[in-house]
Amino acid sequence: MSQRNFTRTQVGIVGCGPAGLFLAHLLHRAGIESVIVESRTREAVEGTIRAGLLEHWVTELMRDMGLGDRMAREGHAHDGITLQYGATRFHLPLDELTGGKRVTLYPQHEVLIDLIAARLADGGRIHFGVSDTAFHDIETDRPRIAFRHPDGTPDELSCDYVVGADGFHGPGRRAIPAAERREYDRTYPFGWLGILAHAPLSWHELIYARHEEGFALLTTRTPEIQRLYIQCDPRDDIANWPDERIWAALHRRLETAGDWKLADGRIFQKGIIPLRSFVCETMRRGRLFLAGDAAHIVPPTGAKGLNLAVADVLVLSRALEAALRRGDESGLDAYPATALRRIWKAERFSWMMTTMLHVDAAETPFEHRIRMADLDFLAGSRNAQAAVAENYVGLPF
Ligand code: PHB
Fold first, then answer.
1. 214's torsion region: left (phi>0), alpha (psi -120 to 50) or beta?
2. Which residue of 107, 126, 157, 186 has the lowest C-beta tally within 10 Å?
3. pLDDT tens by residue, 303-313
């Protein structure tokens, strides 16, 4: 029989995504020990291609933490975005409208590759490929995380505090009884069909387009690889979308302004994701804290998911530091309320961008005209653009 292991650590973290990794790094900087357990393998974590539009302060944080070198070389700073509806295309100058702030396109898996390498180089412990992960005794002062190593050996982390940074489907949120969770949810009647294609850059910045057929987004990964999305039925089967049908829809939806043309190419990955908004306001129970997607989901239209996860753990790391160093738990008590103020603003922004840019078949003619007036106002008002820009580059702390 395999022997059960026990490990003592100050903070046990489930989940090696942006929330878990940034937290481990922030705690390390504060002299606090942590251990991460993750159900996926390191290859799966590092190889899952995800979007990543980093808010201004996240890039500064990465630089301050000594984690910004590759991002500075390989990431792409964007000082504006393009919005489009009907035949109108306009530029929203993020930097001018926010006193010099920008966003950086540096995909999430690249961030994770950098953070994992740095964490391991610092002697940090990350257990990949674990199973049967469960939180125990979260209402005592010695909470535990039980799990099995890939070879089946059971292990247990005995902690001062535990964190569920384990995504929407992880065990973290479910360790809080459903009857005690305050949750808010909105599903949208649309999904995004996303593709990766070998194609040249068509435009120097992202294009968010509202077309009468539905939303389209042009974004990029490298000068040779482009990422594009179109609004679709979330229940649709990707088998109904041969490559020619996808390109035809992209050309129609994006080529509405002047004689600009979208460059196409060979699609090498495609899939459909549903859009949802979700908040679990119960972000703490006893000594368990939730961060990132475990507590909230935003539709991707505002590119807020990763940024919000990092914001959560910035607040949480400071609170854990005060608790572990000085026995001051006031920051931990305030954590949900502090984090939720930012979370709800990001939820509002993501919902607003989604609603403004998508076509909803159930929308009344009145609502439709309001939507178009929203875009018309945004195109012509510097104040309205400043409000979008302020949210897009990331609200101040
Ligand atoms: C992406 O690059 O995949 C991306 C960018 C911006 C968004 C959503 C996705 O709002």
1. left
2. 186
3. 999 999 999 99
